[in-house]
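Hey team,

Filing this mostly as a record. A colleague (T.K.) asked me to run one chain through the structure pipeline before their review meeting, and I want the input and output archived in the tracker in case anyone asks later how it was produced. No errors, nothing strange. Just documentation.

Input sequence:
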Amino acid sequence: MDHLSLAEVETIARRAHAGQTDKNGRPYTEHLAAVAQGVAQRGGSEEQIAAGWLHDAIEDDALSREWLAAAALSDTTKAIVDALTKRPGEPLEEYTARILATPGALVVKQADLAHNSDPARLASLDPATAERLAAKYRRTRDLLGLDPASG
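Output structure:
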């Protein structure tokens, strides 16, 4: 089976998240691009970069689980996207254990955390939200065994 190219995955992700904004009011696609770029900078494969583009698509209801199952993507990319999709009410410990158990998922989450933890992004939020998110990202990095400086 032919798989979607990275350019095609990027186009799908940008269309799926069109009109969405992040907590800073910025286009959400900027976050997706930063995560995909972060995966590439960390030596990630094309499968991992594709997952970077799609890492929030199911969780944010931008694309469906059915779409992911039928998409012309590798099983590896599908597994990474699934691993990075938080389930409603899921404890952080279960979420991070799934990431650690899924080959290739950790580098995508590391790039995601690095962008989410960017001091410039956090500084534009109200102090209470910034501290709440910073604590959440620290806890996630701890559970994943990541060095705080790495994302």
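Quick notes for T.K.: The chain is about 65% helix and 0% strand. Residues 12 and 52 are 12 Å apart (CA to CA).
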